[in-house]
Amino acid sequence: MPIRSDSSRCRRTHRRKERSKFSDGNEDVSPNNGTPLAYHVPMIRSIFALLLSLASFAAAAENLGALPEIPYERLSERAITGLSQKALAIRAVDWKHAETENFIYHFFDRPTASAVSVEAEFYYRVIAKELGKDTARAGQKCHVFIFHDEADWKQFQQGGGMDPWTGGLHSEGTLFFLRNPGWKANDSTLPHEITHLVLHRFFGNGIPLWLHEGFAEYAGSRCRAAFYRARGFNAKPRGSIVPADGFIPLSEFTVLAAYPQKEEAVLAFYAQSEKLVRFLSNADKAAFLNLLDLLSKGSRFDSALTQTFGRKYPTLASLEHEFKPYAISPLAPGAN
């Protein structure tokens, strides 16, 4: 299915069923599994730790259960986009509403929304801090639409002209996504889309496609792992591996204005985007942030590279010489 990109304001996360093909094998989130079953004591300790973490979350969720519902008319900000209006038209009488410091939520299931609200505020602050931005200057709150029924989500996809693989969407400062009922997400859709939101909010619409998606993959995975580690899980960011035959030369890759057409190529594109962001950020965090700022203002990649990483990578060819082996090797550092 062809993949469309409406504009730099609209970013889409597809549910990557074959993501493991381009993964370094690290688990995203898993309970502390301990040592093999033959060693009963470590196993019992591991199970006990998991039960404690679940009990801890249950207690937190009970307090949060408290995410107060607010009639739509009483929300602090009610101006919404055309796509938001299409979402609210689906089972219109069943939508519920609430808000926190930085978000306004529209949802059907309150426990799910309560869990999302904790994650969303955490991700938003961590990602903004990673970029050196002050959330107090963010301006308006972001509207978040949470679907938990597959049929409702498919209806929204069709009404919004989205591709059937779309699992989450950031459009014009608003988030839409499908979330399984309950507190624990099965993927990184929420932090990924919040990363798009933060980039849009603080850097505008000029960020190149590869950088938007690459940073969303990179920061989203790291944030999700940090969130679950704090709750007792053995969570690690998931690294990416670019298939050698899917690697795109940087001279072509950094000027892509649309997603590839074939799904295998899309997966490789996401992997290469994430890997390039991590490679540059690990090489020099300050230089990477300067590169991001320059690219968001319209600079060409080769020009921005010279201004920020010029001493280390004076040319695009010198960067690709070091980056390509890192990108395609399963032995390259995974998700540090």
CATH structural architecture: 3-Layer(aba) Sandwich
CATH class: Alpha Beta
Q: Note the total helix count.
A: 11
- Poorly predicted parts: 1-10, 14-21, 30-64
- According to CATH, the fold-level topology is Glutaredoxin
Distance between termini? 33 Å
Structural class: alpha/beta
Share of helical residues: 40-55%
What order do the strands of the largest sheet run in, or round the barrel if closed?
1-5-6-4-3-2
- For the CA atoms, what is the radius of gyration? 20 Å
Q: CATH superfamily name? A: Collagenase ColT, N-terminal domain
- Give me the strand/helix succession: EHHEEHEHEEHHHHHHH
- Based on DSSP secondary structure assignment, what is the total number of beta strands? 6
Largest sheet: 6 strands, mixed
Q: Approximately how much beta-strand content do the residues carry? A: 5-15%
How does this model look, in words?
The chain is of the alpha/beta class and 336 residues long. It is built from 11 helices and 6 strands. A 6-stranded mixed beta sheet has the order 1-5-6-4-3-2, with helices on both faces. Helix 3 crosses helix 5 (189-203), helix 6 packs across helix 8 (263-283) and helix 9 runs antiparallel to helix 10.
